[in-house]
Every structure is written in C-alpha cells, then in structure tokens.
Amino acid sequence: MNEAKTAMPTADAVSAYLKQHEEKDLLRLLTCGSVDDGKSTLIGRLLYDCHLIYEDQLAAVMKDSRIHGTTGDDFDPALLTDGLKAEREQGITIDVAYRYFSTAKRKFIVADCPGHEQYTRNMATGASHCSLAIILIDARNGVITQTCRHSFICSLLGIKHAAVAVNKMDLVGWDEAVFSRIVRDYKAMAARLGFADIHFIPVSALKGDNVVHPSEHMPWYDDATLLHHLERVNVTAADNLIDMRYPVQHVIRPDLNFRGYAGTVASGVLRAGMPVMALPSRKTSRIASIAGPGGPTDEAPAGLATVVTLTDEIDVSRGDMLAPADNLPHVEHEFEAMLVWMHETPAEVGSSYQLKHAACALPAVLTDIRYRVDVNTMRKLDPAGSPDGATEQGALRLNDIARCHITLHRPIAFDSYQRNRQTGAFVLIDRVTHATVAAGMILDRIVADSKKAPVSSHIRRSRSLVTAADRQALLGQKPCTVWLTGLSGSGKSTIARALEKGLIEQGRFCVALDGDNVRHGLNRDLGFSASDRSENIRRVAEVARLFNEAGAIVVAAFISPYRKDRQSAREIVAGSGDEPGAGSFLEVWLRTSLDVCRQRDPKGLYAKASSGAIAAFTGMTDPYEEPAQAELALDTAAMPVEACVAAIMEALREKSFLPSVENRSPR
C-alpha cells in the first residue's frame, strides 16, 4: 500500500508533465518522393519505433500485412498510413494522409503525400502548411524527375528546410559511394531552389536503419538519425514575427455599447495600444482591448483567435485587414502569382473566378499567363504550349504551374507569399460549381509597380547608336551598381564618398547616389511609409540603370531596409525581358550593430526617434531585414573606411568590373 502511494506521481508532477507537453513546439512536415520510394513505410516505421502504435492497431496492421502487405507475412509499416482501400490494393498513396504524434522534445503533424504525377495537386495541398519536407529518394534510382518536381513544389510553397532521406540502402549493399553520388546530384539540382538548409540521411525505412535508431550497417555515417534531426531542426526563423496582420472575420455588435472585431492573428504580434490602419479604407485608430480564449490580454501572437476593439468608431467590415500604421502590406487590385491548377477543367485567360484570400472573397479575372514552369527541368515555358504540345494557347491544365497576372474587382491588402504565407496565399473558386480550381502564391513583383505600361501610349523606348562595348572600350571599365545597405549610422555615405573618390583617382567614370541627396530633388515628394520607401528605391534603381547604360560605375548608399525592395532594385539594374540593362549589381551589407549605430548617431536621428519625434525609424520602430545573400558584408565597427573601400575595390576587380591598367583598351 505504501509502495503504491510512493509510486504514484504527485499532483505537482502531473501538472509539470502536462505543462511541459503543452509548451512543446509543433513541427508540421510532409513526406514526398516518387512512387514506391517508401514514404508511407518511413512514417509507419517512425511511429512503430517510437512506440506510438496501440496494440489493437498494431494487431490490425499485422493482419492486413498478410493480405495487402508488400513484405510477405512480415509487418508492413506502410499500412499505418495507407488507409484507403484503393491505396492498399495498389500499394500506393493516393490522397494526403495526416498523422499526429509526439516525442519528449516536440509535437509533429506529418502529411504523407502521394508520389504519382497526376496527384501533384494533392501534394501541393499537403505542403502548403508545412515547415519541413522529407524528400525520399530510392537509392537504386537516384535523383529522378519526380524528385525535381516535388523539390520545386516544396520550394515554391515556401518550405525552407529539407531532409533528404536516401531510402532502401539495404538494397544497394549499404554502399557509401551510392549515397555520396545522390548527395552530389541532389545538391546540383537544388542549387536553383530556395531551401535554407538541406540535411542528407541514408536510411532503410523497412528495416528501421537511421530512422529512430542509428544503423549498424552504415558505420561510415555518424550524423543524426531522422528523428534526432526532426526533433532539433530550428524552423522558427521562418515565422514572420515582424509584420502584424489581422484579417477581420466577423463584426460583433451585441448592443449599442460594444463593437468588436473577431479574427485570428495571421502573423506578428498584436498589442493593446498599437496604432493600426484598416485596409483597404486606410482609416486609422488604435487597439483599445484584446480578448483571447482565456479572457482579456495585452498581446496576442500569430495563430491566436481574438476579439479586438478600437479606440475610434471607424468602418471595419468582414474581409478588411488591420495592420500597423507604419508597416503596411500592399493594397492593390492586381498582382502576379504562381498558380497550381487543381481542376480537370482548363483555365482560360479572361475567365472570372471567385478569389478567397484571408477572410475576404471577391471576383477576380485571370488576365494573363506570363509563362508556365516545367517542374521536371525547372525551365520556363511559353504559355502557348509544352514541349509535347499538350497545352492549348492561353490555357492551364490539371497540375500545371504558371506565373499569372490576376486582376481583382476591388483592392485587397496582401503580402508576398515568401514574406508572409498567411497573407500571400489564396485559392480560386469556380463561380458556378464552387469547386476549388487553383491555389496561388503572390509574388514580390507587383504588376502595378513593375510591369505596368506607361500612362502614355504614344511613347517608345529609344536605343543609342553607341553600344555597350563601345563605352567599355572608351572608359576601360565594365558598368555596375555597388549598392550599400545598412542601418543609419553604419557608414554608407562615408564609404560611398570615399569609394567614389578612389575610383575617380584611378581614372574611372563613377557617380555616387546618396539617400539624402535624392530626397532633396528627385524624390522630394516621398515620405517614409513602406510604399514610399519602395518607390524611393525603385526610382533610384532606374537612375542607376541609366548611369550604367552610359558606362558609369554607380555607388548607391541607401538604408533600403526591405529585402523585396533590394531584390527589385537588383532586377531593375540587371534588366529583364527584351531590353537587358548594361549594369550588374553588387550588394554590400554594412553589418554594423544597432548599438554602434546609436552611439555614432551622426545626424541625431536615433535621439529623435527615442524621444518620439520620429515615428517610423529603421532599426527601432521599423524593421531592417538583413540581406540573405549579399555579395559582400563589412563590419564598419571593426574595419576603418580605407579597409572597407579596399575590400569593395577587390570585389570589383574579382568580378572583372575594373580591368587592370595594362588590360584597358587604348582610347
């Protein structure tokens, strides 16, 4: 009796255990790969070796293994996820199957996706909410077209983390050379994709090697098992914690004394007292109160269902969006997006559909199909047809993926999908049958900003009689744009002036563009809102391109806090379509900490921002998005100006923008 009492956990221990389980983070992942690569077997083995299968369920699977299994009378792990009758009869996965399980370190939701090409839409559906993809490769076959297809779709849908499981190593004699070859081939293919990290694991899903427990058959592999990697991979960096977005789902008006707005925080953190703007009306107010499932609260993170009230009586309706007044999404009635066509009825240019985005639904027109993507080769195809001529002019068929121009009947608030998956995704619905026909991911480049034709239809671009080669021969240099980005006080203008002087002293044709200078003239009509910042960078990039076309080296010194704006500047300078620009783009990030910049404060701006005199200031009240792939990163706190200039000069020489004196053509 006493022993039994001692063995029983205390109430505090139970509460601590439940609290620990409740606070474990959740990882959503999917498995994808070609037919018979072992996706379902891998998930089944994962559940089995983690002891997460009930005895009666295991007994039923053992019984079904003798009827439908592919392992003779042995246990077939695939039957734990292949639940449809057709799946068991054919030994394939047809629809997405979800499995939920938990370990001591993390909770998981696994989507087992089909491998057949005709079920691409099912695979895209499973990937849309996942943060990590387990991409299976049969060790006997290596990287095949379906591997490329699924990797491309995962990257397209914003998945940044990939675990490549090279399966069936037992069927190739546990050969390390086979694994190394597949790793090399996959890395070469995935170099064009947007994965942040790729982890390779040799496994045998059927036998359990390197799934949960390390393999005795592959002593040459000493890295983490699949489960160990899944428990420790950091996917929180992909969460958007900066851009607060609150789509309004319902207006609550029980009496004359209360008006609340119900919705789920899509991204960022909603805080009481936060100044917000209602979009698309652009009326401003502040958050007066927040009520969550547990009652009143001062803040609400992404994913929490809440009811908020505002301090002002402004018109807010279902489908509107609340966002910080100093950090707004795009508000447009047209955009470009990648579409995954999910219906047997082809898409026709000019057809009207119902667009469902966040909490709003409105009519939309498929205005144009820019190009289709061959997901097997990742090449752009003309919308008129595929290599086999299977697609009609201006049409998308089932499982096609294409870049399209969508026009809406009224403006909506949205972000690009890469920046915010919640407010950058949408679906198209047939207005007659109400069937979901397409899933879409909004792109950074907005048609209204970058593709729209000039207002006047009576102008045309003229071409110079002097070629780029003529200018290079005359000036002895190749034109380019050196784009200096960093916080205020990081040294952009100082380095830009020193670099310009150094280039001129070498006899180079160079011009510097400074953020303050252009705002005195060219951009004097622009403020510091997100949209004005974007327009400021767009105009500067257009000027830089013109200088590049004249043969000059341009040094641009701009905070340019948003990645999408810097990417847009890169595309403008580099050129696109039929009129490629003469210049190239060299992004130089002045990686100087906020503390150092505040100590310098050469213009007294940080002091003004701290006192509230400046409402929206980068690094304090406004975000600065660090470059992901800058060509050069310089710490100006540790490097003097001369060293920074020398490093940029060396980068220009390495990229052949500054030919040596003896190699310069005679003038």
Write a concise keyword list for the protein shown above:
globular, disordered C terminus, alpha+beta, 4 domains, 18 helices, Rossmann fold, 28% helix, Elongation Factor Tu (Ef-tu), domain 3, 27% strand, 667 residues, eight-stranded antiparallel β-sheet, disordered N terminus
Q: Round the mean pLDDT to the nearest integer and report it.
A: 82
The CATH level-2 architecture of the largest domain is identified as 3-Layer(aba) Sandwich
Shape: globular
Q: How many DSSP E strands?
A: 32
CATH class of the largest domain equals: Alpha Beta
- The span between the termini is 103 Å
Low-confidence stretches: 1-5, 82-94, 386-393, 447-451, 576-582, 662-667
Task: Using the coordinates shown, work out and report the CATH topology of the largest domain.
Answer: Rossmann fold
Could you please describe the fold and organization of this structure?
The chain is an alpha+beta fold and 667 residues long. It folds into 4 domains: 19-238, P-loop containing nucleotide triphosphate hydrolases (Rossmann fold), CATH 3.40.50; 246-324, Elongation Factor Tu (Ef-tu), domain 3, CATH 2.40.30.10; 332-446, Translation factors (Elongation Factor Tu (Ef-tu), domain 3); 468-663, P-loop containing nucleotide triphosphate hydrolases (Rossmann fold, 3-Layer(aba) Sandwich). It contains 18 helices and 32 strands. The strands form 7 sheets. Strands 7, 8, 9, 11, 12, 13, 15 and 16 form an 8-stranded antiparallel β-sheet that branches. A 6-stranded mixed β-sheet has the order 2-3-1-4-5-6, with helices on both faces. Helix 14 (530-549) runs parallel beside helix 15 (563-574). The longest helix has 20 residues, at 530-549. It is globular. It starts with a helix and ends in a 13-residue tail after the last helix. 39% of the residues are buried.
